[in-house]
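Researcher: Go.
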Amino acid sequence: MKSRLAGYLLALADDELILGHRHSEWTGFAPDIESDVALSSVAQEEIGHALLFYERAGDLLGGTPDDLAYGRSPEAFRNAVLLERPNGDWDFSITRMFLYDRADAVRLDGLVGGPVEPLADLAKTLRREEKYHLLYGEQWLRRLAAATPQSRQRVQAALDGAWAEAEGLFDPVEGQDDLVQAGVIRTGSDAQRQLWHGQVGTILESAGLRAPESHPHPENRRGEITGRAAALDGRAGRHTDDLRVLLAEMTSVRRTEPGAKW
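Model: Structure:
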């Protein structure tokens, strides 16, 4: 059971780390100074949350958080593919943030009250800290949807493009069903996805936006298939080249002198 829990924690940590780094890329480039500061702060918090999950995974697997964050190959990462995609324009980044943070809230709710007290307590703490992320993403989404008809169309296009891979946030990692049966996670991935659909759909409708058609199973979602290779599935380690480029950049300093203390 320890290895299954460690695998799930790594997926959560990888999600936070990769999206946190993508958010950080807006530093100095956001639409205004307030957004620049705000998204930089969100990026720091996401990476800080990743550290906490890596620490707990390391307790189960061995290894330091730095080893887990920067010492694995792209194929060993379990983040959802949506999060490794380049930022694109502000519409896409805000839409991705909104969809992810709503999914993250549902997942944290699934850990609160579980039998592993340190993990349940961590989920409670992170849930409080994530409230600002939820408010910020929703506020910007509504702002963009209400600005002009053209702006609303751009946000809807971002939703249409991100939706299939956003559902991949709920693809289970290996052994996750066992954690649900053991009560470590209170709700399964399908139930979490349905909760997310309801919450997100209500907000989108009130903002004058439309929830795209759902394709909850990996084989039905948009993927890059070459020969016999399976569709993209971040939870199984099948990623885009975007992640390889991102990890090469993130680990460039560490790789100059492996094992060095910085």
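Model: The two ends are 34 Å apart (CA to CA).
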